[in-house]
Amino acid sequence: MPPVAIVGVKFLNARPLLAGLEAGLPAPVPYTFSVAEPARCADLLREGQAQVGLVPVGALPQLPGIVAYPKLGIAARRETTSVLLVSRVPLAEVRVLAAHTASRTSVVLARLLLKAKYGVAPQVVPANPPVEAMLARAEAAVVIGDPAMAVDGAAGLYRCDLAAEWMAWRGKPFVFAVWGLRPPAGDAVLPLLEASYGFARQHWEELLPQWAAAHGASPARTRDYLERRLHFQLGEEERQAVEEFLKLAAESGLVPRREGGIWHG
Fold this sequence. Notes:
This protein has 265 residues and is of the alpha/beta class.
């Protein structure tokens, strides 16, 4: 049996899920591990170059044959400071939206919120940080991950934290990413995914300053971010939130409808 290819996300918010994989924990089957931006993780899974990937939930309808592991992911019930809609103008006046190509989910969420709350449906143009370059070609920009944390609090910009806005709108946590897997190869490493997060919890105090240094954040901010703003174990509320988000996105024509169930097991 060839090694199971696992791909994770290279942002700070994923490090707790990846800790054991990065440490090379043993598994029942051979595996390889690499990291990429969220959208690229989905592409690798779709193309068959990976059998397991930490993927944006908005990519699930476009991943036939891929199911989501329902117990682990990246979720939030409050401001994250790492998934932002920033704008030079009031949000009701946004006509062009620069979309960070690293995550399609955040762009879909921003478009849903702009339509529902502000009544606008801006043209979307692909772009990448820095945010100054993104805002040079659009009134507003969606920026995620470490680049978003770098611009959080920047003066002179309207700022919308997308997770907090979703929570206020729908009353549920927002799930940004889940482990997607292609059975049967992906099934064999499910215990490894659980063990990887367990490794992070076991070695948390040792790993936290390492993560902070690697991503250019202070230890205090890293602790606040990973302990207070995000959570990684998913339950029924998170699963319902994923299904509601995908339903709203499909009804708005932002993603295709998914045929069949999305959850593993």
